[in-house]
TrEMBL record:
Pfam families: SpoIIM (PF01944). Keywords: Membrane, Transmembrane, Transmembrane helix. This is Stage II sporulation protein M. The chain crosses the membrane at residues 12-29, 70-103, 115-137, 157-181. InterPro entries: SpoIIM-like.
Amino acid sequence: MKYIDARDCRYILVGIAFWLLGMMMAYPIDAERHAYFLRPPNHHAKIDSIDFGMLHINGSVFLSIVANNLLIGILVSAGGFLTGGILTAAVFTWNGFILMLTIRALSQCQDESIVELFAFHGIFEISAFLLFGTIGFRGFSFWKNLIEKDPMPPAVFINWKFALLPTLLLVIAATIEYYMIKTNIR
């Protein structure tokens, strides 16, 4: 079984294009004024008491990070598939927007270890979301074929094994992010 075919490579490029679109939209914004999202809510908080806002599972930051990222992966893949890729494109554009604000704010940061850790975990996280995004963008072909009443190509339907690699990449990214938080918030 080939993991990625030529169509998936095109979908990855489309995902990158939407990420870049979001980054271009955020570039003119003064990131230094909007860098509040990079500051921890309480500099004296213990690592098990941080609330990320969206999800907090049994006081475990690591599980919260993994679950939050998996929810985004499901949103990008299943939600994108059901909306013909529109939701995937919207999430990628928003993430590109936030990524550019983060990059611009971190460029003002004096602590290089924070920048490195953001970059290391981002490589795995973005790769995982792009792989999940190929599932979401496949929804376009599904709906197009359904509307045109063409026979469904079997490649449109997703094998559950396709989600294993991006899930593993998200766990790796969450591990790096967890240690980044643990070592920088005391």
